[in-house]
Write a structure and sequence with these properties.
The complex is a heterodimer of chains A (239) and B (256).
Chain A lengths: L1 E10 L2 E11 L4 E6 L5 H8 L7 E6 L2 E2 L5 H8 L2 E4 L11 H12 L4 H14 L15 H13 L5 E5 L7 H18 L2 E6 L2 H7 L2 E6 L2 E6 L1 H5 L4 H8 L1
Parallel strand pairs in A: 3-8, 3-9, 6-7, 7-8
Antiparallel strand pairs in A: 1-2, 1-4, 4-5, 9-10
Helix pairs in contact in A: 3-5, 4-5, 5-6, 6-7
Chain B lengths: L1 H29 L5 H40 L6 H39 L2 H7 L4 H38 L5 H11 L2 H27 L4 H35 L1
The chains are: A alpha/beta (239), B mainly alpha (256).
Chain lengths: 239, 256
Amino acid sequence: MIKVSGLYKAINGQDILQDINLEVEDGEILVILGQSGAGKSVLLQHLMGLRKPDKGNVVISGVDITNLSERDLLRVRKNIGYLFQEGALYDFMDVYENLAFPLEEHTDLNEGQISQRIKNVLQTVGLEGVEGKYPVELSGGMRKRVALARAVILNSKILFCDEPTSGLDPIRSRDISDLIRNLSKQLQCTTVVTSHDVANSFRIADRLALIHEGRLIAVGIQGEIASSKDPFVRQFFKN
Amino acid sequence: MKHLIEYIFGFIIGLGNALFFLGEVLAHIVRGHVRIKEVLKQIYEQGIQSIVIIALTSFATGMVLALQGYLMLERFGAKEYVAHLVALSLVRELSPVFGALIFSGKAGAKMAAELGSMSVNDQVLATRTMGVDPVEFLIVPRMVAAFFVLPILVVLSEVLGIAGGYIVGISEANIPGSFYLNRTLAAVGYVDFFSGFIKTFFFAILIGWVCCYQGFKTRGGSLGVGRFTTRAVAFSYILIVLSNALLTKIILTLWG
């Protein structure tokens, strides 16, 4: 379970997050929606312990990560998969090496087992035979799939995805959205996704949250959000 | 006045951050967090990157030194001392300093640009999200490799520079080859060799530190990569030249 309580963050004197309170149940997929600059990515970085809040705390699987040292946070992060907006694959490694990296770092698997795991995970994300390719040789959609494969290769029970459909055409956006949902359910992951893509968020989410100017203004299932009386919520989902 | 105070504060904070970064790297090394496979990969890349240009410039520098020295010394009837001139100039000063400058311009710039590009493309952040310390994985191997590669390149530079001088000595100055070599070996004592060689370790630390730090803190997309890489090379050039003056004074005071 992920629990965020009273989270505040200001950057360069500007309030980015204000009094964020949020709970994500085990196995649930929550999509945080909002306009660009609303604070979605900063919130996700707090969930990962990549930023320290000015006030409030973040509890991941019973561990308050707010005041952990970087070394302790590294241990926590081993159990969390993180999909970056642009994939953030190592460009000096090929696909195989990118996927093998977390396994070599955090497991005792031998070369054969690593190879088998990579083959399986690539099959799951619908990419086979790309092991020897470098990220620069892949399309944007393929890079995202490889990055998603890297995020789940350790069978983490928590998955964070930052704007997974950004920069993709509508078909690829839908494919990656379905893939995230299917993988999360298959691996029973607690998943938090940030997005500004309303249509695909509905495909992925069990529950949705809307963030506006650093504040969570609506949280609920699709029907609850859609029937909100808040003018901004109505306008956001209308568009 | 306000700008000057801001500049001084900025400089002090920047220096503090850079020293903290160096401390972090050294702490990893002391604790034995050194990835041998990555170090060997970096040694290969940094060595390959710089070896040709260092070899060519050293050979040419040895030839030029011998040509100029021979013309000067011949006026005083001391042309056989050209071997001394070439060997001592190269071993004590020229090879360590030129070698470090070239290494900084090639391997140092590569380190800064690679790390800078990784920083702006979230690859450094991705390392942290995978539960791996980016300083240990990306910085320590580069700095350790530089510490070993630069001294080796400088010794190679000295040998090739002396070879360049030797060719000019026997072909232009008509000095017998065996005589030239004997003079060279007699001229270079262990103090001469080590007074230059020791400096290369300091230069290697400076280059690795400055270039890795600038690469690691790169922000601002591709423009930022260019800006921070240029800054990395400029800072390391300045530090090499200034620290050389200081180290030369210390070494001459201690060893004569």
